[in-house]
Amino acid sequence: MEDQTKSVLVVGFNTRPLALSLKNAGYDVYAVDFFGDLDLYPSVVDSLILIKELETDYGTIKGTYSKLLSEFTVQMLKKYPRIDYLIIGSGLDDSYEERKAIINEIKKKNYRIKSLNNDVETIENARNIEYIHNLLKSHNFKVPLTISYIDFGNNKGKIQFPLILKKSKSAGGLNIYKISTYEELSTLIKNFGSDGFNQNDWLIQEYIEGIPISCTVISNGKECEIITINRQLIGDPLLNPPKEFTYCGNIVPAELSKRDEKLVIKITKTLTLKLGLKGVNGFDYVLKDHYPYLMEVNPRIPGSIRASEVSLDANLLDLHIKSFNLDMWDQVRISTKSNKPIFFVTKFIFFAPKEINKNLITIINSLDCVHDKSTPTKSILKGEPLCTILYKGKTKLESYNRAKNTVIEINKIIK
């Protein structure tokens, strides 16, 4: 009898949580991954790891890894032409040409693989902040005041300090700066140098001070259901983030008021359906005075996915795959509606506060509830992610404090 096990190629900056979920759902998993953390390997049949294949490190190729992810994906398809599904996680958010190169290769070689991702045009619309703001305004939702950097000189005073300087294409909190004065803005741009600052690529945005949250949704392009609403940890000093707005983790669920939840859900569902998103996707907000201001659309499986899975005790990657099959949508919809948080889950991404000797990494990896375990073959440099900490509890405080205790243990090890 022929083996009916389906296979999935998962591609991204950190595929470990996706690969784990897919393996748990019974799929054969192949990965193209940036880091190649130790706990990825038990979940995959085979993998291509960027920093391992190129014998380099995070700092050296962090600006070019999207092109490399695309090239390595083509290599993996050539090696395994009979893989069934392709899922692209983080790392190719704004890399439209790289995505097209993968799809073109699939068509050219007539591979059987089915892309379980949003199409490139949909992703471009979702990542175009002007397009998104116009959509929101047409439905009478409020948006942060945003203008292009080029127009800022003609609109001085329109956006008050402090304000945000951000790249129109950014992810994970990179290329976002809080600016308090014109002098500070001028100094920052000078420090970029002429090569590092293309005026066309940058926006000036009203600074919204509030609670960072996110919403995870699943859709078939015509209908959608909310999975979880999450607290976002942004630039949390406990976790030594390299930048002020670096994504550092989540607390799931967010425990918002019913009124706040209702508005988050309304905006998320409106955008999901207007954009025609498919599968599992994420929306980032800042909640200020009970109003959720949209910051970013992530038209792919978000970084909070594993925390949501543990909170719900559900396999969301399996639902993601099924959501692309219209015949299975009723099953996905019923399952998603019935999934309610049973645990509070805290996810921390711990960044190295200084260079960490490779001999200490094995000790850190042995700690309870540590994931994305760094390979102990070389030191971890300051500002690089060392590990993820994930704890569940019956209360938010229990899960948070247990995760925090692991941070304290790590700090003792590396002191």
UniProtKB/TrEMBL annotation:
Residues 133-325 form the ATP-grasp domain. GO terms for molecular function: ATP binding; ligase activity; metal ion binding. InterPro entries: ATP-grasp, ATP-grasp_PylC-type. Keywords: ATP-binding, Ligase, Nucleotide-binding. One of its GO terms (cellular component) is cytosol. The keyword Ligase applies. This is ATP-grasp domain-containing protein.
